Amino acid sequence: MKISEVDFLIVPGLGDSEPGHWQRRWSERLPNAKVVRQADWHKPALAPWVEAIANDVMMATRPVVILAHGLGVLASVHAALGLVDTKVRGALFVAPPDVELHPEVPPAAAPFSPIPRDPLPFPSMLVASTNDPYCSIDRAAEFATCWGSDFHQAGDAGHFNIQSGHGPWPEGLLMFTRLMQRLKS
């Protein structure tokens, strides 16, 4: 699938993606990219966020690929399970937080529990770090297995944000390319 043939939905996590974050950079460089917005990035509500994702999928004029980070991954998974006859062709999920078991996850993320465990209706890749402050690598692997996602363990990469040194994130572009190649078939 060619990049020019896709509408990209970028779904930031809790607090939105700050300037310099890989999602912001990608949104500025990818043609047909749209950032899914919500009313309050610091006190997110699950239902409106899921509705915003579903609406953006419905309004897309081409097949959709979701690029989600952090809590945006869980919002996207909740939304995906409610979509029928979806235009979504794939998703790149980066650093989902374990809102069920991890003690460092901010309380504002609690409404996103329980984490869905059903297989997703489209191909996906989940990228996780061995030292993510919000999710153990074992739990990330469990989520990938449940969702039917390809799993990529990225080593000690933190939460894939500015604080962990992931502004441009060229390795992420390689994983994104791999996902797009998979979607060709």
Automatic annotation (TrEMBL):
Molecular function as annotated in GO: hydrolase activity
Q: Does the keyword Hydrolase apply?
A: yes
The question of whether Endoplasmic reticulum is a record keyword is answered with no
Q: Which Pfam families match?
A: Ser_hydrolase (PF06821)
Keywords linked to the UniProt accession: Hydrolase
Record's protein name: Alpha/beta hydrolase
This protein's species is: Devosia algicola
